[in-house]
UniProtKB/TrEMBL annotation:
It comes from the Eukaryota. It comes from Indicator maculatus. Keywords: Methyltransferase, S-adenosyl-L-methionine, Transferase. GO terms for molecular function: methyltransferase activity. PANTHER family: HEPATOCELLULAR CARCINOMA-ASSOCIATED ANTIGEN, PROTEIN-LYSINE METHYLTRANSFERASE METTL21C. This is MT21C methyltransferase. InterPro entries: Methyltransf_16, SAM-dependent_MTases_sf. SUPFAM superfamilies: S-adenosyl-L-methionine-dependent methyltransferases.
Length: 221
């Protein structure tokens, strides 16, 4: 049920404008760490979207409720990698995934922001929603405590495979955290479909950014 009242939050200005010769770099600070993100203008997935800021902020401020230390975390549609980097800083074993064309920028951001840290080294892998999941991520060896997704729902045709991917990775014991900017009726339709499959709660809303953060877990019989 979605009846629990979500926390109403504001996305804080966690990025710190730096005098920089590069127009394509964004600077953020989460959990006491400076994070520098290179965006790429060619791809949708290569820009920091508001859902990523919302989830990063929420994970940073709710570490007791969602303790990522030594947990296995999978991010789907990782984009620029901000959320995966924050999860890594918070101590998780992170696997960041996205489409092949996004992986180069994603790997670059993740390695440059985590290389000097004393934490679990994140893994970057290709994952096309709904394709080759059994082969690439066999259930026997790939069980995740958390599945993270931000701004994965917008005007696109991949909503069926996205939902199938969420279903595939959400096993008993897995928590799906999904943050999204709600713009279109398709966003609300997807939410409705998610509610039909999982136990779903709205954890937080960021009204100024039209972002909702949802938690979903598999229904156990």
């Amino acid at each position: 049920s979605l009846i629990d009242s979500p926390v109403i939050l504001k996305i804080l200005q966690n990025w710190t404008p730096k005098v920089s010769h590069y127009f394509d770099k964004e600077h953020y600070t989460y959990a006491g760490h400076q994070i520098v993100i290179q965006e790429s203008i060619e791809y949708f997935g290569a820009v920091v979207w508001p859902g990523a800021l919302a989830l990063s902020q929420y994970l940073e401020s709710n570490q007791e409720q969602f303790n990522l230390k030594d947990k296995k975390v999978l991010e789907i549609g990782a984009g620029t990698g901000l959320v995966s980097i924050v999860a890594c800083i918070l101590g998780a074993y992170v696997t960041a995934t996205d489409l092949p064309e996004v992986l180069e920028n994603l790997s670059y951001n993740i390695s440059r922001n985590t290389q000097s840290m004393n934490m679990h080294k994140p893994e970057v892998r290709k994952l096309v929603w709904g394709e080759g999941l059994n082969e690439d991520f066999p259930v026997s060896t790939h069980h995740y405590d958390f599945l993270l997704a931000t701004d994965v729902v917008y005007h696109h045709a991949a909503l069926d495979p996205l939902l199938a991917t969420m279903e595939y990775f959400c096993k008993p014991g897995t928590v799906l955290l999904w943050a999204n900017k709600f713009r279109f009726s398709t966003d609300y339709e997807f939410l409705e479909r998610l509610c039909n499959i999982f136990n779903t709660t709205i954890l937080a809303e960021f009204p100024e950014s039209n972002v909702k953060l949802l938690k979903a877990t598999v229904r156990e019989n």
